[in-house]
């Protein structure tokens, strides 16, 4: 390069790598490959390296300032890009309105299976769901009456409300729930 500066200098390569690693920690760079960030930083430095004047600063100082500025510029550009919201996505409401004249809210347009998938939950087919419910009914039917009542109460209310409704302490409730888990496991039921 000009003025005795070279991109092959070990200090410059190391500083570029450090800046790239620093940028990669930012949520704005999620999904971006490190090589792309390295290339962008190197390209910005290569364009500015011709402006280096050894009478005004040392090479290391110049490179450090240019890379600091480049890192901030890249970060701002990524954040601006993420804020723009135009990632090729379409509004569910607009898609549904183009197919029907009835107004539809986003929650009504997204099915239960889609919502479960988004939350990372397993989506079962109706047949699998039927078999699971049937297995649970069989296990509950084989339980002693007090534990069966506890299962039914826990389906409707929270643990605290169930304990209050049954007139037992939370510790007793936790012990009974532990016993239920053992009985379900002995019956071959594996919790998800």
Structural Rg: 31 Å
Question: How helical, in percent, are the residues?
Answer: 55-70%
Label the overall shape. Answer: elongated
What fraction strand? Answer: under 5%
Structural class: mainly alpha
- Helix tally equals 10
Largest sheet: none
- Strand segment tally: 0
Number of domains: 2
Mean of the pLDDT scores? 82
The string of secondary-structure elements, in order, is HHHHHHHHHH
Low-confidence stretches: none
N-to-C terminal Cα separation, in Å? 61 Å
Can you characterise this structure?
By secondary structure, this protein is mainly α. The protein has 2 domains: 2-84, no CATH class; 124-186, Arc Repressor Mutant, subunit A, CATH 1.10.10. Helices cover 67% and strands 0% of the residues. The protein has helices spanning 10-24, 34-49, 59-84, 92-99, 106-109, 112-118, 126-141, 145-156, 159-166, 170-186. α1 (10-24) crosses α2 and α2 (34-49) packs across α3. The longest helix is centred in the middle third of the chain and has 26 residues, at 59-84. The model has no long low-confidence stretch (mean pLDDT 82).
SSE diagram, text form:
Elements: H1 10-24, H2 34-49, H3 59-84, H4 92-99, H5 106-109, H6 112-118, H7 126-141, H8 145-156, H9 159-166, H10 170-186
Helix pairs in contact: 1-2, 1-3, 2-3
